[in-house]
Give the backbone structure.
Amino acid sequence: MAVRPRTRSNDYSTQIRSRNRLSLPHNSRLSTFDRVDKLTEMSMSNYLGCRAKLKKRVKVKGQLASANDMTFLPGTDHSRLIASDHKGGRLVVFQDDRRTGKEILGGVRPYGVASIDSRTLVFVDENLATGGLIKRFSIEDEFGSTGRVVSQWDNNAGSGGGSNNADTWRPRGVTVTKSGQIVVTNVHPEAQERLYMFSGDAGGSTSFGRANGPGDLVFRCPNYVTADEIGRVLATDAEGNCVKVFDPRSRYVSEFGQGGGGQKDKDARLTRPAGIACDQRGNVIVADSGNRRLAMFSQDGRFIQDLRPPQKMGLHTAGVAVNPSADRLSLSVHDTGGNLGKLLIYDYICA
């Protein structure tokens, strides 16, 4: 009997259905985009969130001039954490929970950093001449200690980075969605659109997230960004004191973190949120910089708990990253001026 070869579909709705084992009736008369919307809605019921606790493993200090953002490399036997040191002008790798890191790239001004796969990173490099570049970095050895920049581009998706309009372009955070799209926040105060989504390696871009408009649609000052398991994009708004949520088609969905008058609402209230990460269970983890805490929310924006309680004094929470496969969480903290960067690595235990 002939065996039909398996094929891999690039259709986003097929990827969601395969990943979450969901399906719609074959006679369902929905467009491709409507099917994505319906499958996304169905997928959310699989990610109800849970309470969690942290157990400290490693404290890294004296290694970084500033700890801005970090990412774990997926699909590796080793626990490899890549940290961006903006003031130190480098990317640093920490291997197997060691307190001493190794520089893998110098001469840059990195902010956001995200992993594409176990050997590839994408990061934001601040550049005063062009406003900033998005760079793709390839790791060339098994231990993540060497590598090179293989491509770079700006908000015009130019491969050389020379055609950028620096007047309204200042990238900061970056993430990679489940479908491989690269999303970057634009923090320039005069920018009309706050988020850029690139298809692959600078293969064209889409901008979204308005700077002006109705109150709940306004994106005042985007900071860092992440993508969840069902393809949504979540970005912190440092001046709006909230998290903005967009669906896989870049449409505004909701926001959370502004709280209200009750005690529960006060617990849910964010102040100058910075780093953000999602785990495979549907939890959204936010570095609440103004309150010096690490807050956890459900996928629909309900406050769950403080992973790191608020501090009246001390260092501000900055970046956060989760390695779902190894149940690790990394948090960066620094002082008000962005100095004294420290990394904290925890066991991340979901109850």
Q: What stands out?
A: Residues 1-36, 158-164 have pLDDT under 50 and may be disordered. The CA atoms of residues 168 and 191 lie 5 Å apart. The chain is about 10% helix and 45% strand.
